[in-house]
Design brief:
217 residues; mainly alpha; Arc Repressor Mutant, subunit A; Tetracycline Repressor, domain 2; 0% strand; disordered N terminus
Length: 217
């Protein structure tokens, strides 16, 4: 089998195209097999490059997925803002946060891995870029949530928004278990009954938090 010869991308637009190709390959692999099961070698193979060439654009696998996480944060924020435009009651605000998360399994998967794995094995510059993008998105979206939810301050809207993302990262893997646990749940309904469903649990917890936040001022 003849291996294609690597040609360095020299023009800025070509470098950007290659970065986008790497991100697209990593995204598709994560959708197919889950974030935890994708290796740097797998991404390199999918995009048709050697690993050494991939790291010219992203230092590590984790940096690839942190950049995808930023893209997903922005996409989620846009979707929530669109839903908030028609929110007429507090429950509509909670639904805007939760329904849009439910519609984004890749985002939820990434959220579950950020603190555990993706913030490890990265450069300080990559960490800074991710944190600033995430904080900026949460602050902006939280302010909009506060405007739509009667009685919440801007700070409380930010807390509610951050909590929605944090809860999604915890609850999503529980609600979407690996094969061994799916088999266990099929065999033991009493154990399966303790597996919290994602969407209704998210709504109940966030609704309770939204009601309770003003009492803690």
């Amino acid at each position: 089998m003849t291996r294609s010869v690597f040609v360095r991308a020299r023009r800025p637009e070509h470098k950007q195209q290659r970065r986008e190709a790497i991100l697209a390959a990593a995204r598709q692999l994560a959708i197919e097999v889950g974030v935890r099961n994708v290796s740097l070698g797998g991404v390199a193979t999918a995009v048709g490059l050697a690993k050494s060439n991939v790291v010219r654009y992203f230092g590590t696998r984790e940096e690839i997925y942190l950049e995808l996480a930023v893209e997903e944060w922005l996409d989620w924020s846009d979707a929530v803002v669109a839903r908030l435009a028609t929110a007429a009651a507090p429950d509509d605000v909670i639904a805007a946060l939760v329904d849009t998360l439910t519609e984004r399994p890749l985002f939820c998967d990434l959220l579950g891995h950020v603190s555990i794995t993706l913030e490890h094995n990265i450069s300080v510059s990559a960490a800074r870029a991710f944190k600033r993008a995430m904080i900026g998105t949460v602050d902006d979206l939280g302010a909009r949530v506060a405007l739509a939810y009667p009685g919440l301050t801007t700070g409380e809207g930010v807390e509610l928004t951050g909590a929605a993302a944090a809860l999604a990262g915890v609850l999503y893997p529980m609600a979407n278990p690996p094969p061994a646990l799916r088999e266990l749940y099929a065999q033991d309904p009493d154990i399966a009954a303790r597996c919290l469903p994602f969407q209704p649990t998210m709504k109940r917890m966030l609704a309770a938090l939204a009601v309770g936040l003003p009492s803690q001022r």
